[in-house]
Structure formats: C-alpha cells, structure tokens
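Appendix B.2, paired examples.
Example (i):
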Amino acid sequence: MAAGTQTNLDLGNCFRITGSSTSDNDVLIQTGDVSRYDSFTLLSTGGAMDVFVSLDGTNYATAALSLQDFGATTNDPVLVTVAGRLYQFRGKFAKIRVLQNGATAVTAATLNCWKQMG
C-alpha cells in the first residue's frame, strides 16, 4: 500500500487528520494512538474510502468498518464512502487506517477524532 499525503492538527479535545491520495488502496490517513477518543467523523470532497481499525495497535481488521452515513435518508450502514457526505463511527480503537477505494483520487479527506462528554 502506498501512502498519500497527510496533515495532523491537534485541537485540544479534538484531533483532526487530513489526507489525499491518487491510487486504489493508498493509505490516505493513518492515525497514531487514538485510544483516548471514542467518536469519529469522516468526509472527502472526491473519491471513495474504506476505514479499517486496529484494537491492539498492530493488527487491523480484514474487513472495512461499517459507517453511519449522515447524508442518507436511511440509517443503513455503509462500507464504502461517497464523496461529499459526512460519516460517523464510534468505538474504542488503538489506531485507524483510511484507504482509497477505487481509481478515483481522494481529495480533502478529513477525519475528526474526539471524546464524547459524559
């Protein structure tokens, strides 16, 4: 897997990672330890993405994570994103890896990580 470009931004209670890529299965976002967060949102302005998670920080799930599509009229989970839509997922993960899905370049992908209050 090739790597795309990535920028990290620490916003205090929220951590933002942005990335882009050009080829299928490029890693466009690779987090470090995100175990202190439990809520995540993801969107891109172009291309499709898959999300893979690691519980131990070394091994990743072999199937993409189901995401809630906030742009859909139903609450059906999706495995592959569509450009321009906002997706959310929750859980306690050690690391998160976002890959480009398909030949269309992923542009302006953003992953926000934060901890729910209460």
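Example (ii):
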Amino acid sequence: MVVKKENEKNKENVGSSESQITIFTNRINRLTEHLKNNKKDENTRRGLMKLVGKRKKLLNYLKRKSNDKYESIIKSLGLRR
C-alpha cells in the first residue's frame, strides 16, 4: 500500500513535517511488507523501528504546533493514534 503524497504542498516542499510524515509512512509500509517475507532480517527490523520513532517524534511536534494539521494527516494516512 503506497500512500499518495497529497499532503505535500508542492514538489519542492519535502522538508515540511506533513510531507516527511508521509514519506516515513510509505517507507514503513514497504519495510513491513519486506519483513513479512524475511522474518529473520534483524537489520531491516532495526531500521524500521528507527523510522517509527522518527515519525512519532514528528507527529508529536505537529500535534503541539497545529492540532488541525495533525488530525488531518492522521485521518489521511489512516494512522491509529
């Protein structure tokens, strides 16, 4: 499942919190699918956990700064929070 990058304001704005969260979510989904087939790949599992932590920090930051943007990105990405 690849999430569309509809949260990005434009192509050059990949540094915004919303676009970074979208990019991290896409990578997390791909790594999760990879780990379903390769259960013993511990290096990928470690990378996945690091990405999840980074996304969590960005989500906390976004929630502090703008709760409306936080709610909209959670809803659009289908994250459970």
